Amino acid sequence: MNVRNLTEELLGKGESDRIEFIASARAENLIGRAVCALLNTKGGSVLVGVDDCGQVLGVLREEDADVLRLFLHRHITPQVLFTVTLDDVQGGRVITVDIPEGSDRPYVFDGAVYIKKGLDILAVDAATMREMVVRQSRETERWERRVAVGLAIDDLDRKLLDETVRKAQDRGYRFEEVHKPDAVLADLALARFGQLTNAADVLFGKRVALRHPQTRLRAVCYETDRGDNFIDEQLYEGPAFYLLEEAMVFLKRHVAIAAEFKPGQLARESRPQYPFNSLREGLVNALVHRDYAAFSGGVSVSIYPGRIEIWNSGHLSMGLTPEKLRSATHESILVNPDISHVFYLHELMERVGRGTFKIVQECRDMRMRPPVWQNKVSGVHLTFFGVGQGQISVKINERQRALLDGLGINESIRMDEYVERVGRGISDRQARRDLRNLVDAGLLDPIGAGPATSYRRTETKI
């Protein structure tokens, strides 16, 4: 399933507490209220160029998305990461605004605060506003927002900061005083009350590891799958962008590239054992969603002959599960919104809430076994399996075989329908395990969450 299919799926679901349709890109105030409302509730998507029935109304241009992106960034406070993209769908083009669940509520659009309640967008009253402010004040301050004691402008990599400004301006971001580093950092929520934050140190600190040793990244290439002997081991430190760059260099140094000649072609085709785009996406997720407050934490990359593991010392946000990460649509909850925002400005994050599905899809396109996420006490583990490493290594029972034989490509089934089809003698727990095993094998895609989850047959063959 590609981006077009994902957007068309949202169109097919219709409006809900997480989906809003707006007919015209010129209805900027309506769009601004909808984005603000979703930030203040569960997050979701606003689809522009669509009527209330989900009908695509016409052809929008890239310029329309650029104008809307700039408008929203100027009129919604505090600054927050959301993505505005132009998507091709059947019948034309729509602008999709993907919005995470906001971490710094209340969010304000043109002086007013809005929430989404069912299908309605409501301006909050004074009592609701007080409740939101009190709830926010009681929450523990995020580590990335805490003051970095003793950190000064001179401790930051100015070249990297200037590059961030240029990239942000290319994406339509506007700064109040672009030539003043302290003002730029304040605009990016990386400075508060004249003092730099921990996020500024993570992103731009030249010697961040001296103040925060947990920011280091360890990369190891092992000789065997048991991990008893290593071929190469490196410990990287510096700004998060440097860690990402060095980790990718390490991966490319040790990941094998296969070359083959296809019939009728003179030139050979090169194919890496792993999809580098997905590896980079996995590293970005590890760097922006990890728990920086844990002094024993970090990020590691482990290369084995048959797999690659990326670990970070974070945990999946409440409500997210490894199964949901593999699904086409799931909630987006940013653990470190300020750090995520700057990664987005560097074009290292494309769509809010869709990165993990892109990883799964790219692996399937390469006919690889789908990657596996594990949410353990020690942190989040993401495992990639190399080409030829047991693409489908799951035992299929008779119930599962009957289901796969009866489902066409892209056809879906819910768990209650599966139970009914199988007949008596299977519990909900057994049915859930059957479906989860087929998801792990890449034979089904979970769509949605909770009791309403459906499972769509993929193109993967047994």
TrEMBL record:
<dbReference type="Pfam" id="PF13749">
    <property type="entry name" value="HATPase_c_4"/>
</dbReference>
<dbReference type="InterPro" id="IPR036388">
    <property type="entry name" value="WH-like_DNA-bd_sf"/>
</dbReference>
<dbReference type="InterPro" id="IPR038461">
    <property type="entry name" value="Schlafen_AlbA_2_dom_sf"/>
</dbReference>
<protein>
    <submittedName>
        <fullName>Transcriptional regulator</fullName>
    </submittedName>
</protein>
<dbReference type="InterPro" id="IPR007421">
    <property type="entry name" value="Schlafen_AlbA_2_dom"/>
</dbReference>
<feature type="domain" description="Schlafen AlbA-2">
    <location>
        <begin position="15"/>
        <end position="119"/>
    </location>
</feature>
<dbReference type="Pfam" id="PF04326">
    <property type="entry name" value="SLFN_AlbA_2"/>
</dbReference>
<dbReference type="InterPro" id="IPR038475">
    <property type="entry name" value="RecG_C_sf"/>
</dbReference>
